[in-house]
Amino acid sequence: MRTANINSVRCIGIKVASALLGLGLLIGPGGALRAAEPQVPAPRINADPAFPFSREIEAFAKANEAGPAVADATLFLGSSSIRLWDIGGSFPDIGTVNRGFGGATTPDVLHYYKRLLPKAKPRSILVYVGENDLAAGATPAEVANNVLTLLRQLRADYPKAHIAYLSLKPSPIRWTLWPKMAAVNMTVAARSRVTRFDYLDVGRVLLAADGLPDASLFRPDGLHMNPRGYMLWTQLVDAYLDEAVAAERGPVSPS
């Protein structure tokens, strides 16, 4: 019976302590009551999924404010494959705006969409995004759906612009993801006419004769292209832009 009594006392003590704690009180030395220390929740790390990109987005805003708008510019939009591209040096004869930020997924671009746009309406828009989505675990269907959502939004905002989606590229370090990338490319390409954008295959030029990614076109990380790889992209995009502008002007009448 003594054991039962001790257990009863312990039970009562726990209930009393719990009740006091709920009132913000604790039992101090000698039985005195004192206020409990406020419970500060642990800080959330990167509560905003776009937090890692805040500096890049801020830099874009400052660039918009720094000088006059670039009229009839070509907007390059997307992830690190865009960010690392020397856009100005590669296309010196046209106005360009680079809105690429490293590690970006398509949801990241959609999240910051309005803050990525230049001050003046662009004449052409080149988009490369989706690769990081697959690397993070998204399915090809999810990626294609998000990419098409982005392209539809761009078309709605810029009905007269030339808009092209640059196909997801093969790379040595992400070669195992290539079947998924190819599935995204196929789905996006199939919707190009309906959504009114162009699909530009920029992946085929990065493959060697054996059908594998040409390592000589990539940096040591096996993911990002080196200047030789970007030169091939520049040639494809430059030809596309020339053709788009020529089509815009229409056929030249004989003199």
TrEMBL record:
Domain spans labelled SGNH hydrolase-type esterase: 95-230
Entries under Pfam families matching the protein: Lipase_GDSL_2
UniProt cross-references to PANTHER family, sorted A to Z: SGNH HYDROLASE-TYPE ESTERASE DOMAIN-CONTAINING PROTEIN, THIOESTERASE 1/PROTEASE 1/LYSOPHOSPHOLIPASE L1
Native species: Sphingobium indicum
One of the record's GO molecular function terms: phosphatidylcholine lysophospholipase activity
Secretion signal span: none
SUPFAM superfamilies given in the database record: SGNH hydrolase (SSF52266)
Bilayer-spanning residue ranges: none
Name of this chain's protein: Lipolytic enzyme
